[in-house]
Amino acid sequence: MPSFRPALAVALLAVLLGALLPATAAQAASRTVQGGRLDWGIKSSFQSYVTGPIAQGSWALAGGAATVGGSQFRFHSATGSYDPASGAFRAGFSGGVRFLGHKKSDGSYELDLTISRPTVRIQGGSGTLYADMVSKERGSGRVTTAAQVPLATLGLSGIDMRGGSTPIALTNIPATLTAQGAKSFAGYYTAGTPLDPVGLSVDTTGPAARPSPSKSSATPEKSTAPKKKSAAGPFEDGAVDWGVRRTFREYVTGSIGQGKWTLADGAEDGGALFRFPKGRGTYDPKEQTLAATFAGSVRFTAADGLDLTLSRFSVALKAGKGTLRADVLSDGATTRAVPLVTFTAEEFAPKNGLAVLTEAPATLTAGGAKAFGSLYKAGTAMDPVSLAVATDAKAELPALPDLGSDTAATPQPSKSPVTRTDAVPAAAEADDDSHTGLYLALGGAGVLAAAAAVLLLVRRNRAKPDASS
After folding, report:
1. φ, ψ dihedrals at 318, nearest 5°
2. N or C: which end of the chain has fewer CB within 10 A?
3. Which residues of the chain fall below pLDDT 50?
């Protein structure tokens, strides 16, 4: 009598595949890249050359770019698109860096190069990094400006971009200077020169759903005119942005400090700065005075024993002068309301319900110098202070650079159904966290495993089990 097991197995397989197909179709829908960062040192030896004894120059950040460790630049606020079905990927980032060197007698520089708005495009297994370039040609001094120059090719050997969810993280991707990139690099390097490897992490969102009818669409809300505040009183919302000091952050996370910073209690990371939100207090638009406290804390730790926490930030403005204070926890002791820096705030009047102070130069106080363990002297220039206060509930605070989700949230291969394809031979793998790679969360892996089990059942009913299975 013939067995009905193979037919049953085939039926089960059909059911399982039927359950898988809708998920695959939904997963294949094109997604929007929104939020994330790209970390790239461009070329570390070039940085050393610019700031070294020959060029005697410097570099400066622009557009909210930040630094990571001792030699990488962080570009923020990714936007673009991603197609899980084909693996096509495009992400553009904000921010830039300008290199200056070989200062001439007239005050200008022979070396003057700006790289900004990097964009990564991946299609069909190949990838390219583009960027806006402003460069001064060696010798002639002719300045060339070009948008989205194909600056570097990306080594994506072994990486499959298909089937990913969010966040998508690429780490340690080799980059090689293109012919067009070499020209825009003012001739300092030839085509084919290896550049620093590229790393990025971006968030993706699915297609927007159609808005459903709501009561608010059928019944218009009654509009009320915002209350004008002409005297001192509470404000609606506020935030203070401060990066402490760029070189301090680089020391903490660099090869010497080998440490990190940790944000808590609502503080946000903007790459080049930290945001302390939920401002509360009083503001007088006429006198432009402010007394406000903010939420959030930042803790710096390093291998040399550094352990410094700044919390309960407050700002006081009066007569065009500002002071930023914070509670300081160091060596197990807390000192309250330490005046860390002073800054100028000559114009802090509200416009359209929002009073904004952008990147006011800040100077370290004597109390601040003590808080930093005399690492810096009083009077040292610290990172600038930005401040925003909303006097109208409808006013929105300035946007913070969007660094996307924490890549630590990316699932690891040993913990969940994840495919991970490295750009190094599989035999060379030793540490899951140390290799070039793409981490992509795949849906339906459990269904595929079940389908494979059913196929195996069919085979076992047709032939003897293979000893290798």
Report:
1. -165, 135
2. N
3. 1-27, 209-230, 409-469
**HEC secondary structure over the chain:** CCCCHHHHHHHHHHHHHHHHHHHHHHHHCCEEEEEEEEEECCCHHHHHHHHCCCCCCEEEEECCCEEECCCEEEEEEEEEEECCCCCCEEEEEECEEEEEEEECCCCCEEEEEEEEEEEEEEECCEEEEEEEEEEECCCCCCEEEEEEEEEEEECCCCCCCCCCCCCEEEEEEEEEECHHHHHHCCCCCCCCCEEEEEEEEEEEECCCCCCCCCHHHHCCCCCCCCCCCCCCEECCEEEEEECCCHHHHHHHHCCCCCCEEEEECCCEECCCCEEECCCEEEEECCCCEEEEECCCEEEEECCCCCEEEEEEEEEEEECCEEEEEEEEEECCEEEEEEEEEEEECCCCCCECCEEEEEEEEEEECHHHHHHCCCCCCCCCEEEEEEEEEECCCCCCCCCCCCCCCCHHHCCCCCCCCEEEEECCCHHHCCCCCCCCEEEEECCCHHHHHHHHHHHHHHHHHHCCCCCCC
Residues 362/344, Cβ–Cβ less than 8 Å: no
Q: CA-to-CA distance for 352 and 265, rounded, in angstroms?
A: 29
Q: What is the pLDDT of residues 413-446, one digit of tens each?
A: 322 222 233 333 222 223 333 334 444 433 333 3
pLDDT at 25: 45
Peptide bond into 167 cis (omega under 30): yes
**Helices 445-462 and 5-28, interaxial angle, to 10°?**
160
Long-range CB pairs of 103-108 (<8 Å, 24+ gap) are 103/56, 103/57
340's tokens: 């860390």
Torsion over CA: 216, 390, 76, 116 (sign)? positive
Separation between Cα atoms, residue 346 and residue 383, nearest integer Å: 18
Q: How far apart are CA 109 and CA 141, in angstroms?
A: 9
Residue appearing with tokens 């069909």: 124
Report which residue type is found at 411. P
Cα Rg of the chain (Å, integer): 27
Determine the residue type at 319: A
Q: Is the dihedral of CA 353, 298, 363, 318 positive or negative?
A: positive
- 388: amino acid identity, one letter: A
Distances from the Cα of 467 to the Cαs of 65, 331, 451, 463, in angstroms?
Answer: 58, 64, 21, 12
Give the per-residue pLDDT at 406.
75
| 222, 367 contact by CB (below 8 A) | no
User: What letter represents residue 115's amino acid?
Assistant: I
Tokens of 84: 């899980």
Q: What is the pLDDT of residue 231?
A: 60
